[in-house]
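Annex B, item 7. Sequence and structure tokens for protein A, then protein B.
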Amino acid sequence: MSLLLRWLALLSRSSVAVCLLLCITSQARAWKEPLGMMLEPTYALPVPLFLRGGEDVVTSRAERVPYTLDAGINLHVPLTSSLVALDTRDGWAHSFVFIPRVDLRHGRADSFPIRTPGYYPTVRFQVFHQRRSDTLRRRVIAEFFFAHHSNGQSGCLYRDQVDAPNGRCGFPKEEPARANPPLNHIDGSFATNEVGLRGGIELSWGPKQSALRLTALLGAVLFRPLVGGIDPEIEAAYGLGRGELWLRFGKRLGQGDLASELGVRVRADARFGSQTVRAPASLVVDSFWRVDVMRDWGPFVRVIAGSDPYNIRFASEVLTLGVGMMWEP
């Protein structure tokens, strides 16, 4: 009976999260025109399975924490977009979108939010050029973006650091220097700004060039903000930037109320320039079924291998498998 009550509590919590995400995305759907291309999806993963990694530091010891919810909220706020014009003509178009992204993770079946939600407000400006033939549509994509990524904490960056009299964190004098010190997953302060460029191409085949679609983006990101600075200690750990590869393959199925899209999204990235922490590369693969009558929501399966994408856990290596719901603009 106790196990049944825990699962009912988990189902209730997950349902509330999904309802919240549905409300948020339905507001974004009020904008009838296309918002952009390869935008971040909103998702909810109840009970993701950590096949490797997923340890948290609790009372100074590492223990595996069973997560009960992993979610990302991406409310896409359109500032301006002319992408809908490419439905009827070739040529140039643009998209300018603000995304106040928040990442959430929850542990166990009782109340145990994983500190802390990730705050990732992003501005993405995309330019497109399209050419079509009878059976093929080609879109070239160029993108500039600026983002702030932080976890809202104020503690020392590394687990073994202590507050010094001058107000700055430092290692105890008796603590020998280590090449790869463990990060503070409880309240370690993490914040950086990102500026980057992406470029790629989308190819669409079939009736009205919409039956089969392949999109590829290649990007470079620098942790060099346009305004403000980055703490030298965080810079030494997080690195100078990262390289990215985004792929998306989709196949349209059915017609009318039964219309849907079956597809795969892949994102791979690797950081460079870190001086103190060796962070693994990351691979995220989503297999999704997006249903038109469900306002573009649908079930999906996510696999993450490599760097944990949750905030200050970027140096942790994980292998996760989750099944949940996803909405893609």
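Protein B:
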Amino acid sequence: MSDSERPIFSGGISVPVVAGANGGFKLATGDDYITQLIEVNSADADSDNPFQIVGIGQGAVFQNVSDQAWKGLKKREMAEIFRDLKRANLATLQSIRFTDGEVAGDFEMQVTYLSLETNTRRDVNTTLRRG
């Protein structure tokens, strides 16, 4: 499927999943939706469930977040998300920065974007944990 054929959504089910006012799923839109996309993409998929099916390759399990190639992968994933958001006239990516986290081996990823709905610059910070 080419980029032009991929569906674009301006919102989605909020995470964590909760009931909305009308009994359906609560939906996330606007900056809440964009923040959610960034945070979910940055998650390490860790849980106490040893049988959890993560849907990622072994590289994500054995990769070190201090590795420049891994940071490059995260930047490419964010760029892909923001290509779709730009096509939907929701947001454009401004920058991605990595800094040392509070815990040794962790990194903070700061994603800066321009919300096209509100014409405001927004920063989203998320922690990337060492695998």
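Comment on protein B: The domain at 11-128 is CATH 3.10.450 (Nuclear Transport Factor 2; Chain: A,).
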